[in-house]
Design goal:
Blueprint: E1 5-8, H1 14-27, E2 34-37, E3 40-43, E4 47-52, E5 58-60, E6 63-65, H2 72-85, E7 91-97, E8 104-107, E9 120-126, E10 129-135, E11 142-147, E12 152-155, H3 159-162, E13 163-167, E14 177-183
């Protein structure tokens, strides 16, 4: 997957990651989103919040999300990522995995408003969790990463077209994990 995915385990220092986790966990207006799964509506197995520029409207799982305004801390992260990666990020999906029962199933970030080869910058805070990737055309080809606090995972190029990813449930005791996936959303066509 060279050139499509990179992991920087110390993008934030341990202290900075801890402080940011504490701050963003209380500043973010978390909610349970309803998603369409196998033809029925169910509660998403995590808390989340869509944040961004006013025009960064996002469609996911049969719903349209208007963004909450940027918090000071998330705007500072966005600006740093824009500078380092050269991507005009205008939104972030914030997820709170409360414990090992909260998860995200197999998927690709391939919604039309992300474009053909989106850059997704994913910052992890709180508890370390296992992140799994598999080829879309051969599910036996997998890669597992551990996303520790302060780590930055960047997926780019054909990654979303060729691979799926998931954050599996775990029976091991694990604390809360915050994840912020920065994206550039193109305006929705009506």
């Amino acid at each position: 997957m060279a050139g499509r995915i990179s992991l920087q385990t110390d993008w934030l220092s341990a202290h900075a990651a801890h402080v940011l986790c504490e701050t963003l966990s209380v500043q973010t207006p978390w909610s349970v989103h309803r998603i369409r799964l196998f033809g029925r509506w169910v509660d998403s197995p995590r808390l989340s919040c869509w944040i961004g520029d006013p025009q960064a409207v996002y469609r996911y799982s049969g719903q349209t999300f208007a963004p909450h305004p940027w918090t000071q801390g998330l705007a500072a992260l966005r600006d740093r990522l824009r500078e380092e990666l050269g991507v005009p990020f205008n939104s972030v999906l914030a997820n709170l995995y409360r414990d090992g029962r909260d998860a995200m199933g197999w998927h690709s970030d391939d919604e039309p408003e992300l474009g053909a080869e989106p850059v997704i910058a994913s910052l992890s805070l709180g508890a370390a969790r296992r992140f799994v990737l598999r080829r879309r055309d051969d599910h036996a080809v997998k890669q597992t990463l551990v996303l520790a606090p302060g780590s930055l995972l960047v997926m780019r190029g054909p990654c979303q077209r060729d691979w799926q990813h998931a954050l599996p449930r775990t029976a091991k005791p694990v604390g809360p994990r915050l994840n912020f996936t920065f994206r550039h959303i193109r305006p929705l066509r009506r």
